[in-house]
Amino acid sequence: MRKGILYVVSGPSGAGKGTVMQHFLPRHPGMFYSISATTRAPRVGEEDGVNYYFMEKDDFLRLRSADGFLECAEFCGNFYGTPKEAVMEKLSMGIDVLLEIEVQGALQVMDSYPEGIFIFIVPPSMEELRSRLVGRKTEEQSVIETRLDRAKEELRLADRYTYIVVNDVAERAAEELEAITTAEEAKSERKFEFVKENLL
Ligand code: 5GP
Prior knowledge:
The protein has 200 residues and is an alpha/beta fold. The protein has helices spanning 17-24, 57-65, 84-92, 103-112, 126-136, 141-155, 170-186, 188-198, and strands at 6-10, 32-33, 37-38, 53-54, 69-75, 78-83, 97-100, 117-122, 163-166. The two termini are 17 Å apart.
């Protein structure tokens, strides 16, 4: 049986990864969207087990020591990590998995799971990135400045990804992501199995 494909969607905070996901995921109900663990406090409307698994720092660090994360990173003062077991289990069952994570985490996955497909979502301009972060109204001004500085550093690493998607309009960017997943599925290294089983 073919293993699932691991898609890692990454990009600077405010590039609109979440909004692109909102357009993309409902059209891919068979894909497993990994819910991350974080030590960040929930924002208004966020639910434990839906948006994140919200954890105390001690518990998070304990899980990290026990090798419980596929990757994890500290981002703007909080820890974020991908619970490893669920992801590996789905992949071995042939289910495609999607991670939405920041850049340090994506770089770790590039090392530990290089067969993953790495997609970098970028904003159309830095002005647009700033206005998206301001418009979200979830962060203080100082946090926004930190996230913008971090974004610049992260953009320098974009060439390490398999694909770069410019998120000018989320719906269009989601279509581009869809085109990427369709093309990945059609790669001969994956589709030859179908030819052998059904046509030879
Ligand atoms: P936020 O606090 O805005 O929800 O997320 C901050 C950043 O952390 C975003 O770029 C988000 O994609 C990223 N993030 C969410 N979950 C994970 C994770 O499991 N691992 C890593 N490395 N980053 C994550």
